[in-house]
Design a protein that fits this description.
The protein is an alpha/beta fold and 251 residues long. The chain has a single domain (3-249), classed as Alpha-Beta Complex (Spore Coat Polysaccharide Biosynthesis Protein SpsA, Chain A), CATH 3.90.550.10. It has eight helices and nine strands. Strands 1, 2, 3, 4, 5, 6, 7, 8 and 9 form a nine-stranded mixed sheet that branches. Helix 6 packs parallel to helix 7 (208-224). The longest helix is centred in the C-terminal third of the chain and has 17 residues, at 208-224.
């Protein structure tokens, strides 16, 4: 089994090293590593080129945003399974991909997902813990969806069900996971392991305006896929974030 891992980057010269090293130091070695850079204006590409012999494909050109960049990576991927790790984020340890492959080999599944830890912006403190449950379809209506970068899917799913929809500015990940898992009923399996750690401050949570836009797009994701969202889904989704914060406070 070959695993394609895609890193998207834009002006991440100070943090992309840790991302690259978390991939190239994996115990599982049959990894196709693809970096898609949005024509950075800093020294991101200088850093990337230092690791060129460990990277299968490098794309550096202007794009239409993060989801367009991810789509470019998916189109370039030749692996059996595709996953993501964005610049500045890290695979949780050097056994993560080995565990993912083992899960695919042991179970007849289309995709696996796991847990993630969200760190403060300086990386010194865990501020949220996203620990996912075993999958049940009603979890989506109860405000849950898998941590995006813990989701590893067979490449054939993207050919069958499509790529990230660029109509969604900050919730295309939610829409794709909803479309794959809830609408098309792919067979998913929880890998009961931490798979990724990343720093807080993503586009979707940078401001109240973005949070409102995010949830507006989540509602649209249900509507565009021909399903009416229950009235309680978005409130429960927000409560899950608070639960993740509370979980982090307990450690």
């Amino acid at each position: 089994m070959k695993i394609s891992i895609i890193t998207i980057a834009f002006n991440n010269e100070k943090e992309i090293t840790q991302t690259i090293e978390s991939v190239i130091n994996q115990s599982f070695t049959n990894i196709e590593y693809i970096i898609v850079d949005g024509a950075s204006t800093d020294k991101t590409m200088d850093v990337v080129r230092k690791y060129e012999k460990h990277i299968s494909k490098i794309i550096s050109e202007p794009d239409k945003g993060i989801y367009d960049a991810i789509n470019k990576g998916i189109k370039a991927a030749t692996g059996d399974v595709i996953g993501l790790i964005h610049a500045g984020d890290e695979l949780f340890d050097n056994k993560v991909v080995e565990k993912i492959v083992s899960c695919f080999n042991q179970h007849e599944v289309d995709a696996v997902y796991g847990h993630s830890k969200i760190l403060s912006q300086d990386g010194t403190k865990v501020v949220r813990i996203n620990k996912s449950p075993d999958f049940k379809k009603n979890l989506f209506s109860r405000g849950w969806f898998p941590s995006h970068q813990s989701f590893y899917a067979k490449s054939e799913l993207f050919e069958k069900f499509g790529l990230y929809n660029l109509k969604y500015r900050i919730a295309a990940d939610y829409e794709l996971l909803f479309r794959f898992i809830y609408i098309n009923k792919i067979n998913v399996k929880l890998l009961d392991e931490y798979m990724v750690k990343f720093k807080q401050g993503g586009t979707s949570t940078k401001s109240i305006k973005n949070i409102l836009q995010l949830n507006k797009e989540c509602v649209a994701a249900w509507r565009d896929n021909g399903v009416k969202i229950p009235f309680y889904t978005i409130p429960l989704k927000l409560l899950r974030k608070l639960e993740q914060v509370f979980r982090a406070e307990l450690i």
